[in-house]
Specification:
Layout lengths: L3 E6 L5 E7 L12 E6 L4 E4 L1 E10 L2 E2 L2 H9 L3 H9 L15 E8 L2 E6 L3 E7 L2 E11 L4 E15 L3
Parallel strand pairs: 4-11, 6-7
Antiparallel strand pairs: 1-2, 3-5, 5-9, 7-8, 7-10, 10-11
């Protein structure tokens, strides 16, 4: 199998970019991100108040919120150059990362209650009753993955358990 390489040159011969094009079927696809709950388990009963959360996350890198905010507000020279040459372009482009990075948003009964930057965390203020807890992976800038990567468990919280 062969391949082709395209080089882009400006007037005067300056090299500005290169692209390696592989024949169809030769591209190595990155594994899609995954998230699942270790705790609480679906259908479990836990004590009301503070609920421990434990996740397994694969093919996705969790980053600290401070680092995400710095990256969001301090664009690279390449991004500044692209903004100058391509006004109106999307502020963030996603999808080319081998392992996307960001954080995990927790929603209790549809309401955002926590943002995790590690696979362990807690949800506080959980009242007695039946609940749905959702974990969704989002990019560092807060954009959801496409397609969305989320999982939900149902559990019961009881007083004095």
């Amino acid at each position: 199998m062969g391949f082709s390489m395209n080089l882009m040159r400006l007037a005067g011969g300056a090299l500005v970019g290169a692209c390696l094009l592989l024949p169809p079927g030769c591209e190595e696809e990155a594994e899609p991100p995954e998230v699942e709950f270790l705790a609480p388990q679906d259908g479990s009963t836990v004590a009301s108040g503070t609920v421990d959360v434990s996740l397994v996350i694969e093919h996705f890198t969790l980053v600290e919120l401070e680092a995400a905010l710095r990256a969001r507000h301090a664009p690279s020279r390449l991004a500044q150059w692209a903004d100058a040459l391509l006004p109106g372009r999307a502020a963030y482009a996603h999808g080319g990362e081998e392992f996307p990075e960001g954080h995990c948003v927790l929603r209790l009964d549809g309401v955002e209650v926590a943002t995790l930057t590690s696979t362990q965390g807690q949800v506080t203020g959980v009242e007695a009753g039946q609940h749905a807890l959702e974990a969704e992976l989002v990019y560092a800038d807060g954009d959801p993955l496409d397609p969305p990567v989320k999982v939900q468990v149902g559990f019961t919280a009881e007083d004095g358990t």
